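quick one
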Amino acid sequence: MPAYDLVIRKAKTKEYQDRLVDIAVSEGKIAYVGTSIEGKGEEELDAEGKLVSPAFVDAHLHMCKVYTYLMIGEEALRHYHEGGMGTSELAILLASKIKEKYNESWIYDNAKRAALEAISYGTLYIRAFVDTDTKAKLEGIKALLRLKEELKDKITIQVVAFPQDGIARDPGAEEYVRKAIELGADVVGGIPWIELTSEDEDTHIEKMFEIAKEYNRDVAMLTDDTGDPGLRTTEKLAKKAIKEKWIGRVTANHARAASMYTAPYLTKLAQLLKLADMSLVTDPHTGPLHIPVKFFLSQGVNVALGQDDIADAYYPYGNNNMLEIAFLNSHILWMTTLKDMETLFDMITYNAAKAMGIKSYGIKVGAKADLLVLNARSIYEAIWRHEKPVAVIKSGNRIS
Ligand SMILES: [Zn+2]
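structure w/ zinc ion:
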Protein backbone atom coordinates (compact mmCIF):
# COMPACT_ATOMS: atom_id res chain seq x y z
CA MET A 1 0.00 0.00 0.00
CA PRO A 2 1.43 3.38 -0.94
CA ALA A 3 2.35 5.71 1.94
CA TYR A 4 2.11 9.46 1.65
CA ASP A 5 3.16 12.38 3.83
CA LEU A 6 -0.35 13.80 3.87
CA VAL A 7 -3.74 12.72 2.60
CA ILE A 8 -6.66 15.13 2.46
CA ARG A 9 -9.87 13.16 2.20
CA LYS A 10 -13.36 14.03 0.92
CA ALA A 11 -12.38 17.34 -0.62
CA LYS A 12 -14.66 19.41 -2.77
CA THR A 13 -12.70 21.21 -5.49
CA LYS A 14 -13.32 23.57 -8.38
CA GLU A 15 -11.22 21.25 -10.52
CA TYR A 16 -13.34 18.12 -9.87
CA GLN A 17 -16.81 19.51 -9.44
CA ASP A 18 -18.74 16.29 -9.93
CA ARG A 19 -17.29 14.34 -7.01
CA LEU A 20 -15.43 14.52 -3.73
CA VAL A 21 -11.75 13.65 -4.13
CA ASP A 22 -8.83 12.57 -2.00
CA ILE A 23 -5.56 14.46 -2.44
CA ALA A 24 -2.29 12.76 -1.53
CA VAL A 25 0.94 14.66 -0.97
CA SER A 26 4.51 13.37 -1.05
CA GLU A 27 7.70 15.40 -0.72
CA GLY A 28 5.85 18.70 -0.93
CA LYS A 29 4.02 17.86 -4.14
CA ILE A 30 0.63 16.49 -5.05
CA ALA A 31 1.14 12.80 -5.78
CA TYR A 32 -2.42 11.72 -6.44
CA VAL A 33 -5.89 13.19 -6.90
CA GLY A 34 -8.90 10.93 -7.22
CA THR A 35 -11.67 9.10 -5.47
CA SER A 36 -10.98 6.56 -2.72
CA ILE A 37 -7.23 6.64 -2.67
CA GLU A 38 -5.36 3.50 -1.75
CA GLY A 39 -2.80 3.85 0.99
CA LYS A 40 -2.47 6.12 3.98
CA GLY A 41 -0.90 9.39 4.88
CA GLU A 42 1.42 9.99 7.80
CA GLU A 43 -1.00 12.85 8.44
CA GLU A 44 -4.66 12.46 7.51
CA LEU A 45 -7.02 15.40 7.12
CA ASP A 46 -10.74 14.91 6.61
CA ALA A 47 -12.08 17.88 4.63
CA GLU A 48 -15.66 16.65 5.27
CA GLY A 49 -16.82 17.91 1.88
CA LYS A 50 -15.34 21.37 2.33
CA LEU A 51 -13.75 23.24 -0.56
CA VAL A 52 -10.04 22.61 -1.06
CA SER A 53 -8.28 25.24 -3.11
CA PRO A 54 -4.76 26.02 -4.22
CA ALA A 55 -3.27 28.77 -2.02
CA PHE A 56 -4.39 32.31 -2.74
CA VAL A 57 -2.11 34.62 -4.67
CA ASP A 58 -1.77 38.38 -4.26
CA ALA A 59 0.02 39.65 -7.36
CA HIS A 60 0.15 43.29 -6.25
CA LEU A 61 0.81 44.65 -2.76
CA HIS A 62 2.73 47.78 -1.72
CA MET A 63 4.30 45.88 1.13
CA CYS A 64 6.74 48.55 2.34
CA LYS A 65 3.82 50.87 3.13
CA VAL A 66 1.47 48.57 5.03
CA TYR A 67 -0.04 50.05 8.24
CA THR A 68 1.26 53.58 7.56
CA TYR A 69 -2.17 55.19 7.09
CA LEU A 70 -2.24 56.86 10.48
CA MET A 71 1.43 57.82 10.18
CA ILE A 72 0.95 59.69 6.89
CA GLY A 73 -2.55 61.13 7.34
CA GLU A 74 -5.45 61.52 4.95
CA GLU A 75 -4.41 64.22 2.52
CA ALA A 76 -2.87 61.88 -0.07
CA LEU A 77 -5.83 59.53 0.14
CA ARG A 78 -8.24 62.38 -0.57
CA HIS A 79 -6.33 63.31 -3.73
CA TYR A 80 -6.28 59.68 -4.88
CA HIS A 81 -10.00 59.09 -4.42
CA GLU A 82 -11.73 62.39 -5.18
CA GLY A 83 -12.34 64.30 -8.40
CA GLY A 84 -12.33 61.30 -10.75
CA MET A 85 -8.69 60.56 -9.94
CA GLY A 86 -7.68 63.83 -11.61
CA THR A 87 -5.12 64.50 -8.87
CA SER A 88 -3.76 61.02 -8.22
CA GLU A 89 -0.30 62.22 -9.23
CA LEU A 90 -0.43 64.76 -6.39
CA ALA A 91 -1.44 61.94 -4.06
CA ILE A 92 1.75 60.07 -4.93
CA LEU A 93 3.85 63.17 -4.24
CA LEU A 94 2.17 63.68 -0.86
CA ALA A 95 2.38 60.00 0.02
CA SER A 96 6.10 59.96 -0.73
CA LYS A 97 6.61 62.13 2.39
CA ILE A 98 6.46 58.93 4.40
CA LYS A 99 9.76 57.97 2.86
CA GLU A 100 11.58 60.64 4.84
CA LYS A 101 10.95 58.29 7.77
CA TYR A 102 11.85 55.09 5.90
CA ASN A 103 13.80 52.71 8.05
CA GLU A 104 14.45 49.03 7.57
CA SER A 105 13.43 48.06 11.09
CA TRP A 106 9.86 49.39 11.18
CA ILE A 107 9.23 48.40 7.56
CA TYR A 108 10.34 44.87 8.45
CA ASP A 109 8.00 44.77 11.47
CA ASN A 110 5.01 46.02 9.47
CA ALA A 111 5.69 43.75 6.50
CA LYS A 112 6.05 40.77 8.82
CA ARG A 113 2.71 41.51 10.45
CA ALA A 114 1.13 41.68 6.97
CA ALA A 115 2.80 38.43 5.88
CA LEU A 116 1.65 36.54 8.98
CA GLU A 117 -1.88 37.80 8.48
CA ALA A 118 -1.68 36.76 4.81
CA ILE A 119 -0.69 33.24 5.86
CA SER A 120 -3.61 33.01 8.27
CA TYR A 121 -5.93 33.82 5.33
CA GLY A 122 -4.22 31.33 3.01
CA THR A 123 -2.46 33.92 0.85
CA LEU A 124 0.84 32.13 0.33
CA TYR A 125 2.18 34.08 -2.63
CA ILE A 126 2.70 37.83 -2.61
CA ARG A 127 4.31 40.08 -5.19
CA ALA A 128 5.60 42.84 -2.93
CA PHE A 129 6.18 46.24 -4.53
CA VAL A 130 8.87 48.02 -2.57
CA ASP A 131 9.75 51.67 -3.13
CA THR A 132 13.28 51.90 -4.45
CA ASP A 133 14.30 55.47 -5.13
CA THR A 134 16.39 58.38 -3.85
CA LYS A 135 14.09 58.91 -0.84
CA ALA A 136 13.35 55.31 0.15
CA LYS A 137 16.84 54.19 -0.86
CA LEU A 138 17.19 50.47 -0.10
CA GLU A 139 15.51 50.49 3.34
CA GLY A 140 12.36 48.71 2.17
CA ILE A 141 14.26 46.35 -0.11
CA LYS A 142 16.53 45.21 2.73
CA ALA A 143 13.54 44.69 5.03
CA LEU A 144 11.59 42.67 2.48
CA LEU A 145 14.55 40.56 1.37
CA ARG A 146 15.18 39.67 5.02
CA LEU A 147 11.53 38.77 5.54
CA LYS A 148 11.35 36.79 2.30
CA GLU A 149 14.24 34.58 3.46
CA GLU A 150 12.95 34.23 7.02
CA LEU A 151 9.47 33.11 5.95
CA LYS A 152 10.36 31.17 2.81
CA ASP A 153 8.98 27.89 4.17
CA LYS A 154 5.62 29.50 4.83
CA ILE A 155 5.04 32.11 2.13
CA THR A 156 6.58 32.96 -1.24
CA ILE A 157 7.36 36.66 -1.46
CA GLN A 158 8.56 38.10 -4.75
CA VAL A 159 10.25 41.45 -4.18
CA VAL A 160 9.71 44.11 -6.85
CA ALA A 161 12.21 46.99 -6.99
CA PHE A 162 9.74 49.77 -7.65
CA PRO A 163 10.85 53.33 -8.51
CA GLN A 164 7.60 54.94 -7.28
CA ASP A 165 8.62 58.53 -8.06
CA GLY A 166 9.81 57.91 -11.61
CA ILE A 167 13.15 57.44 -13.31
CA ALA A 168 13.54 60.70 -15.27
CA ARG A 169 11.80 62.64 -12.48
CA ASP A 170 13.98 61.11 -9.78
CA PRO A 171 17.58 61.07 -11.03
CA GLY A 172 19.44 58.31 -9.21
CA ALA A 173 16.44 56.00 -8.83
CA GLU A 174 17.65 53.84 -11.69
CA GLU A 175 20.84 53.02 -9.80
CA TYR A 176 18.85 52.09 -6.70
CA VAL A 177 16.74 49.69 -8.77
CA ARG A 178 19.91 48.12 -10.14
CA LYS A 179 21.38 47.77 -6.63
CA ALA A 180 18.14 46.24 -5.37
CA ILE A 181 18.24 43.61 -8.11
CA GLU A 182 21.88 42.89 -7.29
CA LEU A 183 20.89 42.41 -3.64
CA GLY A 184 18.34 39.79 -4.74
CA ALA A 185 15.09 41.54 -5.65
CA ASP A 186 13.12 39.26 -7.95
CA VAL A 187 11.29 41.61 -10.30
CA VAL A 188 12.04 44.94 -12.01
CA GLY A 189 9.31 47.50 -11.37
CA GLY A 190 8.34 50.75 -13.03
CA ILE A 191 5.73 53.48 -13.21
CA PRO A 192 6.16 55.14 -16.60
CA TRP A 193 2.97 57.20 -16.48
CA ILE A 194 4.33 59.31 -13.61
CA GLU A 195 6.90 60.93 -15.92
CA LEU A 196 6.24 64.43 -17.29
CA THR A 197 6.53 63.72 -21.03
CA SER A 198 5.82 60.90 -23.43
CA GLU A 199 9.56 60.73 -24.24
CA ASP A 200 10.40 60.28 -20.57
CA GLU A 201 7.82 57.47 -20.35
CA ASP A 202 9.66 55.71 -23.18
CA THR A 203 13.02 56.23 -21.47
CA HIS A 204 11.60 54.91 -18.19
CA ILE A 205 10.42 51.69 -19.84
CA GLU A 206 13.66 51.41 -21.81
CA LYS A 207 15.89 51.74 -18.75
CA MET A 208 13.92 49.28 -16.66
CA PHE A 209 14.01 46.72 -19.47
CA GLU A 210 17.78 47.18 -19.71
CA ILE A 211 18.05 46.03 -16.10
CA ALA A 212 15.51 43.24 -16.57
CA LYS A 213 17.42 41.87 -19.55
CA GLU A 214 20.80 42.20 -17.89
CA TYR A 215 19.68 40.25 -14.82
CA ASN A 216 17.04 38.09 -16.51
CA ARG A 217 14.13 39.34 -14.41
CA ASP A 218 10.39 39.63 -14.95
CA VAL A 219 8.88 43.11 -15.18
CA ALA A 220 5.89 44.51 -13.25
CA MET A 221 4.88 48.11 -13.77
CA LEU A 222 2.11 50.43 -12.64
CA THR A 223 0.55 51.95 -15.73
CA ASP A 224 -1.85 54.84 -16.29
CA ASP A 225 -3.09 55.05 -12.71
CA THR A 226 -5.08 58.24 -13.15
CA GLY A 227 -8.18 59.65 -14.84
CA ASP A 228 -6.51 60.63 -18.13
CA PRO A 229 -7.66 58.81 -21.28
CA GLY A 230 -4.65 60.21 -23.15
CA LEU A 231 -2.24 58.01 -21.17
CA ARG A 232 -0.92 55.05 -23.17
CA THR A 233 1.79 53.40 -21.06
CA THR A 234 -0.05 50.06 -20.91
CA GLU A 235 0.24 49.92 -24.69
CA LYS A 236 3.86 51.08 -24.58
CA LEU A 237 4.72 48.36 -22.07
CA ALA A 238 3.04 45.65 -24.19
CA LYS A 239 4.88 46.82 -27.30
CA LYS A 240 8.19 46.74 -25.43
CA ALA A 241 7.48 43.24 -24.08
CA ILE A 242 6.84 42.04 -27.64
CA LYS A 243 9.91 43.79 -29.02
CA GLU A 244 12.20 42.32 -26.35
CA LYS A 245 10.47 38.91 -26.51
CA TRP A 246 9.64 39.18 -22.79
CA ILE A 247 6.52 37.17 -23.58
CA GLY A 248 4.53 36.13 -20.50
CA ARG A 249 7.03 37.95 -18.26
CA VAL A 250 5.40 41.37 -17.88
CA THR A 251 2.41 42.62 -15.88
CA ALA A 252 0.63 45.95 -15.92
CA ASN A 253 -0.94 46.96 -12.61
CA HIS A 254 -3.85 49.38 -12.23
CA ALA A 255 -4.05 50.71 -15.85
CA ARG A 256 -7.10 52.65 -14.63
CA ALA A 257 -7.11 55.06 -17.61
CA ALA A 258 -8.39 52.09 -19.65
CA SER A 259 -11.81 52.81 -18.09
CA MET A 260 -11.91 55.91 -20.34
CA TYR A 261 -10.63 54.42 -23.61
CA THR A 262 -12.84 54.09 -26.70
CA ALA A 263 -14.07 50.63 -27.68
CA PRO A 264 -11.94 50.37 -30.86
CA TYR A 265 -8.75 51.29 -28.97
CA LEU A 266 -9.56 48.84 -26.16
CA THR A 267 -9.97 46.07 -28.72
CA LYS A 268 -6.54 46.81 -30.20
CA LEU A 269 -4.98 47.03 -26.74
CA ALA A 270 -6.41 43.63 -25.81
CA GLN A 271 -4.83 42.12 -28.94
CA LEU A 272 -1.45 43.60 -28.02
CA LEU A 273 -1.71 42.31 -24.45
CA LYS A 274 -2.41 38.83 -25.77
CA LEU A 275 0.53 38.97 -28.19
CA ALA A 276 2.74 39.90 -25.24
CA ASP A 277 0.97 37.29 -23.04
CA MET A 278 0.91 40.17 -20.56
CA SER A 279 -1.25 40.01 -17.44
CA LEU A 280 -3.30 42.81 -15.95
CA VAL A 281 -3.57 43.10 -12.17
CA THR A 282 -6.51 45.21 -11.11
CA ASP A 283 -7.60 46.56 -7.72
CA PRO A 284 -10.98 48.26 -8.19
CA HIS A 285 -11.51 48.54 -4.42
CA THR A 286 -8.58 50.98 -4.00
CA GLY A 287 -9.62 53.72 -6.44
CA PRO A 288 -12.71 55.04 -8.19
CA LEU A 289 -11.58 53.95 -11.68
CA HIS A 290 -10.66 50.49 -12.91
CA ILE A 291 -10.00 48.60 -16.13
CA PRO A 292 -13.05 47.13 -17.92
CA VAL A 293 -12.45 43.72 -16.35
CA LYS A 294 -15.21 41.76 -18.09
CA PHE A 295 -14.14 43.14 -21.48
CA PHE A 296 -10.50 42.08 -21.09
CA LEU A 297 -11.52 38.66 -19.75
CA SER A 298 -13.88 38.20 -22.72
CA GLN A 299 -10.93 38.92 -25.03
CA GLY A 300 -8.84 36.22 -23.38
CA VAL A 301 -6.50 38.57 -21.49
CA ASN A 302 -5.28 37.23 -18.17
CA VAL A 303 -6.68 39.46 -15.40
CA ALA A 304 -5.91 39.03 -11.69
CA LEU A 305 -7.13 40.82 -8.58
CA GLY A 306 -4.60 42.26 -6.12
CA GLN A 307 -4.84 43.58 -2.57
CA ASP A 308 -2.79 46.66 -3.63
CA ASP A 309 -2.71 48.40 -0.26
CA ILE A 310 -3.14 47.63 3.42
CA ALA A 311 -3.86 50.70 5.53
CA ASP A 312 -1.65 53.18 3.72
CA ALA A 313 -1.94 56.60 2.09
CA TYR A 314 -4.06 55.15 -0.76
CA TYR A 315 -6.47 52.80 1.00
CA PRO A 316 -7.36 52.57 4.70
CA TYR A 317 -8.34 48.88 5.04
CA GLY A 318 -7.09 45.46 3.95
CA ASN A 319 -6.15 42.15 5.60
CA ASN A 320 -4.41 40.21 2.84
CA ASN A 321 -7.61 38.16 2.72
CA MET A 322 -8.03 37.51 -0.98
CA LEU A 323 -11.56 36.18 -0.47
CA GLU A 324 -12.43 39.61 0.92
CA ILE A 325 -10.93 41.15 -2.24
CA ALA A 326 -13.09 38.85 -4.37
CA PHE A 327 -16.13 39.79 -2.24
CA LEU A 328 -15.53 43.54 -2.55
CA ASN A 329 -14.96 43.35 -6.29
CA SER A 330 -17.99 41.16 -6.81
CA HIS A 331 -19.90 44.34 -5.94
CA ILE A 332 -17.75 46.91 -7.68
CA LEU A 333 -17.64 44.92 -10.92
CA TRP A 334 -21.20 43.58 -10.54
CA MET A 335 -20.01 40.03 -10.91
CA THR A 336 -22.67 38.24 -8.89
CA THR A 337 -23.71 35.13 -10.83
CA LEU A 338 -22.31 31.75 -9.82
CA LYS A 339 -20.23 31.77 -13.03
CA ASP A 340 -18.94 35.26 -12.15
CA MET A 341 -17.93 34.00 -8.70
CA GLU A 342 -15.88 31.22 -10.28
CA THR A 343 -14.15 33.87 -12.38
CA LEU A 344 -13.45 36.01 -9.30
CA PHE A 345 -12.05 32.91 -7.60
CA ASP A 346 -9.76 32.31 -10.60
CA MET A 347 -8.61 35.92 -10.34
CA ILE A 348 -7.21 35.31 -6.84
CA THR A 349 -5.81 31.86 -7.67
CA TYR A 350 -4.90 30.68 -11.19
CA ASN A 351 -4.90 34.06 -12.97
CA ALA A 352 -2.82 35.67 -10.23
CA ALA A 353 -0.41 32.70 -10.22
CA LYS A 354 0.05 33.14 -13.95
CA ALA A 355 0.68 36.87 -13.47
CA MET A 356 3.42 36.08 -10.93
CA GLY A 357 4.95 33.37 -13.12
CA ILE A 358 4.37 30.65 -10.51
CA LYS A 359 5.05 27.23 -11.95
CA SER A 360 3.40 23.94 -10.98
CA TYR A 361 0.40 25.55 -9.31
CA GLY A 362 -3.06 24.07 -8.84
CA ILE A 363 -4.77 20.87 -7.82
CA LYS A 364 -3.13 18.34 -10.08
CA VAL A 365 -0.47 15.67 -9.82
CA GLY A 366 3.01 17.21 -9.74
CA ALA A 367 1.87 20.62 -8.53
CA LYS A 368 3.26 22.12 -5.34
CA ALA A 369 1.15 21.11 -2.35
CA ASP A 370 0.26 24.67 -1.37
CA LEU A 371 -3.34 24.01 -0.42
CA LEU A 372 -6.18 25.41 1.65
CA VAL A 373 -9.14 23.70 3.24
CA LEU A 374 -11.70 26.48 3.22
CA ASN A 375 -14.51 26.85 5.70
CA ALA A 376 -17.05 26.60 2.87
CA ARG A 377 -18.65 23.97 0.67
CA SER A 378 -18.71 26.05 -2.50
CA ILE A 379 -17.01 29.02 -4.15
CA TYR A 380 -20.23 30.97 -3.58
CA GLU A 381 -20.09 30.35 0.16
CA ALA A 382 -16.33 30.98 0.29
CA ILE A 383 -16.66 34.46 -1.25
CA TRP A 384 -19.86 35.28 0.64
CA ARG A 385 -18.37 34.54 4.07
CA HIS A 386 -14.68 35.26 3.21
CA GLU A 387 -13.59 33.44 6.34
CA LYS A 388 -10.16 32.14 7.27
CA PRO A 389 -9.33 28.65 5.97
CA VAL A 390 -9.58 25.77 8.45
CA ALA A 391 -6.21 24.49 7.25
CA VAL A 392 -3.32 26.15 5.42
CA ILE A 393 -0.76 23.82 3.85
CA LYS A 394 2.58 24.93 2.37
CA SER A 395 4.73 22.35 0.55
CA GLY A 396 2.69 19.62 2.18
CA ASN A 397 3.16 20.95 5.74
CA ARG A 398 0.28 22.30 7.74
CA ILE A 399 1.36 25.80 8.80
CA SER A 400 -1.85 27.36 10.07
ZN1 LIG B 1 -0.73 49.80 -6.53
